[in-house]
């Protein structure tokens, strides 16, 4: 532990006294937001009608957040730093709002909330108020890239922001509640991916204020020795700041920040002038122990409040009706001495205003926290360079590995943006396994630990970020995107569920920012889900889950897109398209195994733009109305569907089959539900209004029903998909277990077309025999029948 | 770091030599499973046809797992311990299968896989083979409570198993890949919840074999000093075992296990005879550094394999066609000298067999790993004790806090099972916030850290487990249930998404175990999701997400149940019912705020058993066919629906409204989709076949469409629910933002009944005016209009 010798630096008392006043101003404004409707400067005695009828907000964490903010302002000014503040305890919304108002950022963005008493009154009233601002640090809060409602992601967001931003410092407050979460516990390892030369710095500030909603926190009750050991083990140099007496705490904090920022400067200097050792640096972090609800009421109704869990939300309740409570509130607010902080008109006094940085150096106005301001377009190579040649007579006869081709595309995208240093690829140790390995021709996995002579594809400057934590990948990428850069996340399909909740939170953030004019668009978050449910040969049931897209489809339609490219050319088109979009979340599902190729690049483009289309070269409608529609979405379902079509066409040549393929799943929804939805006539033109539709879908069948339930022909949709039957088996056996295979599809088709059974000769018996044959063959030989393995579409 | 002095104990070389042979036998069987179809004892030279056509499995982690297993066998025998093995690297399936076969457990459960050459051949062939066993440690694997396909949960499962099992030791292998995940990184703190007196012990063995699929692991590249610091920081005493030379490693491992188990014994003795200090003990853990793919091929085709990532799956591929590869395989397998390990008939040689424990002391036969064998029924109090009196004339007029009443029920359940010590409550710091605080009348939060004089509801013996990590709560509970106990998990609704993926994995485990006769039923995992989307006044959008049940509904219907009790009596009935079930996952969604009460306990029982029913006392059908069905699922939707019904009835007395309430969401599905599904006639009897149905649903509306799409009247369902509009606002404003409020419901009803608009006078104008009035009122006053707050159902 680094203890700060009291005499080491000489920060004048007068400076610290000013900081204390600044802090009091922030605290005053925070309390005001939670409690007051009116009388913002307490020029009158506090009356019931000045108090909000519903008291909503979180005081406990706020004074500590304000304390940190005030001291960071000093550091920014002294060192002329470019800094943003990631507020892990997002519940401390009032604090972030207060500070950005004090420094002027707030009123610039929201002129109605002016820097005077009238603005202060509105600032107070709007907080946690209908039509106002949320209680949390939210997209509406200037200077924030982080909501902090769902705890766990502060530190990954901070590191994501710091990557490739060498001049940026990200101060990141981690609450001791949040520190108990899994994602946060793993996040500390992020410094092992931070290159002091090309990346910025993250200064984690672990704020131990002792309590969660109702009980102590684990880390706060650990002794200093264990804490120091833990964070040294994580690779940091911890600095402790502990106490409750403001004057002493201001000195400790200021001196400790000086030490920590000196340490950061030394590390960066050494890395950048080439004098650094090859060892990963030991970055500083701060452990701040301060009382929960610091400076608030010590007791209410005889019960301990300050420095206890009861300070978590509203420390003294019911201040409208309970005179004694209102008196506590008034005494508390007056203890900050508002007249000493604000002038008669409610403006912050100039000597205090002078403590805040200016312009974009203010943390509420730093453009990194509104990344769209800094975003440069991604340079993308022409997709024609990656076209797999698919000639008319050879459809389905040649195979390619779709993700391998996309890997080539990503490799060249990395090269094109190498100078801009604003594109990274993220994935939990699966880039190679997902067949995106071409990227390693031009870059490495970033790795700041020891590199041994026989290691491959590891480097200090790598642009591929791999760690066996989907949480870290997702969080880093979110931080990277929200600060104006571009990225791509490839993941095993089943395990993307690990970040369901992070996806939810990011979608919510996106939904709100899209409605805020001052937040500029940021690049979309694009997932490639591969190593998917139908090809988990090495693993089995635990690795088989296609349900992520079901959750995605619940989100606001302006935010989400879901694609199932059936082959390599469609995948490249979709990938290229997604990387050029902004303010969205794109999910692409595609396999990594060699599969049949169906469309030329030109056809792929037309098909993907339409979202869904008829493959007339595959069907047998001959211009008339079809007897039957055979549709598919997904690469494996398309393969099985095509094989089923061929079986049917061979056996019943006069059967009029229409073949439909869906790439953009949202095309299935009504136009009033999703902007990509096909119009009713367009939908009917594909799926008819009355013919049976056999639909082979990649995931849970219910999603197709849910998306199409408003469509005219919905009652005739018969969807095959994953029905939660899985294990380690052959690829074809997986489809059979789930009745997605060609035989089941063909059998269902025969069932659904009136009178077809009679016309189909011994086809039913043949298909059933094939299933039986398959069953015995795989259990005997351990691989699929040659006729399955070697099957090709016959043009 | 505790270094083991070489001379401290005197384990004879001959004993270690036997262990080495045992280890070789396990390694031999592991390789055989990955590669061989036949020739199990290598009595013939290895030919192409002896090799599986598809080589699937993971060798890399396996020799280390086998090494640990062999040494744990020794410890069990020497100390007569009751021990189970949690295998974090579940990919090491071949190892667990091999060991349980060697000790005889496997053949007892699967007699067909006998302890001889014929059995060995089947053992080999079945692995990762269609119709055989999965490649992972799976439910099919004897002795396991943990799949280990999705990494991150080994340690929480281990602790869950150890709670309230004072005589059990859980050896838990944590792979260094898994150690990078968030959940695992937080899991180390679990020892802060383990009471040495009443709970068993967990011995974590961090297995650093250096590599993931394609790159080094973070923890393996950390130096010993940082590692030791990290784990001391987490509160453990780390013991290092490092090397690759088998003889030396056997001695180190045996001696280190002796030290570690001595330490465990001392800690437990001191805690149990009362001589322990009050400080949390520093439990031992082991850091084992051994080469990945240890004893496998050092190089293949000139490329490093052993001790490198290339040993991860199948170290030498294509052994059928490539003679050189087959030779490498044969040399490798013969290096274990099978004739030295197995007799001529393939049985393990008796001097080796003697190394394994016997009977239920074998880790593959320990009943704790098949918890249903040990499960005692939960004692449950009569629910009539908790009935909220709801008389016919007072429906909807009285209010109660549903979860508060359930808290009373849980309190008494805790008391009834206090002696059995087999019931715990889990939740992320929200037991009190979720209004289940009555449980603290009889127990505490368990807390092994410092307890201060002013702390409340904290104790060493508490049965409420709170930590701000949904991952830990879920994982502990899974481990607790799978070892035969009972539990209850309450969680904020939005944040249960954090454990989506753990839910998925548990549902998959349950689905498989239900089909295995030898796995006895375990108690269901029951969630109470509260502090739900409609009542997040303190928080807002980040805390508003009702989508967990959408994912649950994707799972096998025999495993999942979803309940939306509309009031306290129905909640108590459902809670009581769920706690008595087994092998399922139950999700209950209910609010914690004071809400209207609708049904007496007797009515609640009938209503819940039916799953859905007509509330004839609320409707106005008068025995005829209704003009309209007004349906709801969920407490807030039911309140709004009832208010809408009252508005309509008041304004249009001759309108025939049927009121339907749904408690058991699965009642909506067809009977062929879910066992709780209503029959078609029963469904039609509720919802008619042709009348409009206005459905107020708690969550995303699409789920109702998806569940009912096969129903006759589905085309007339108009569902209101959460449409992703949220923020910090008043309770009623939340419903208005999402058009779930009484006014929108009534307006939609008027729209949907043909001709009704004309009959409704100025009702439409009045409803629209009300919405307008609401809009202005809440933005002015910050609370809902008195007529909303004070609204009561008029009986």
Describe the model.
The structure is a homodimer of 795-residue chains. Chain A is of the alpha/beta class. The first copy, chain A, has three domains: 13-370, Thiamin diphosphate (ThDP)-binding fold, Pyr/PP domains (Rossmann fold), CATH 3.40.50.970; 397-595, Rossmann fold, CATH 3.40.50.970; 612-789, Rossmann fold (3-Layer(aba) Sandwich), CATH 3.40.50.920. Helix content of chain A is 36%, strand content 13%. Chain A has a six-stranded parallel beta sheet, with helices on both faces. In chain A, helix 2 crosses helix 10 (246-272). The first copy, chain A, is elongated and about 95 Å long. Residues 1-7 of chain A have low confidence and may be disordered. Chains A and B meet through helix 7, helix 9, helix 16, helix 22 and helix 26 of A and helix 7, helix 9, helix 16, helix 22 and helix 26 of B.
How many beta-strand segments of chain A? 22
The CATH architecture of the largest domain in chain A: 3-Layer(aba) Sandwich
User: Could you estimate the helical fraction of the residues of chain A in percent?
Assistant: 25-40%
- The domain tally of chain A reads 3
The largest beta-sheet of chain A arranges its strands as 12-9-13-14-16-15
N- and C-termini, Cα separation of chain A = 73 Å
Q: Could you give me the name of the CATH homologous superfamily of the largest domain in chain A?
A: Thiamin diphosphate (ThDP)-binding fold, Pyr/PP domains
Structural class of chain A: alpha/beta
| Count of DSSP-assigned helices of chain A | 27
Quaternary organisation: homodimer
Q: Compute the CA-based radius of gyration of chain A.
A: 30 Å
Unreliable spans of chain A are: 1-7
Mean pLDDT of chain A: 96
The name of the CATH topology of the largest domain in chain A is Rossmann fold
Major sheet characteristics of chain A? 6 strands, parallel
CATH class category name of the largest domain in chain A? Alpha Beta
Largest interface: A-B, 125 and 125 residues
Taken from the alpha-carbon principal axes, the silhouette of chain A is elongated
| Beta fraction of chain A | 5-15%
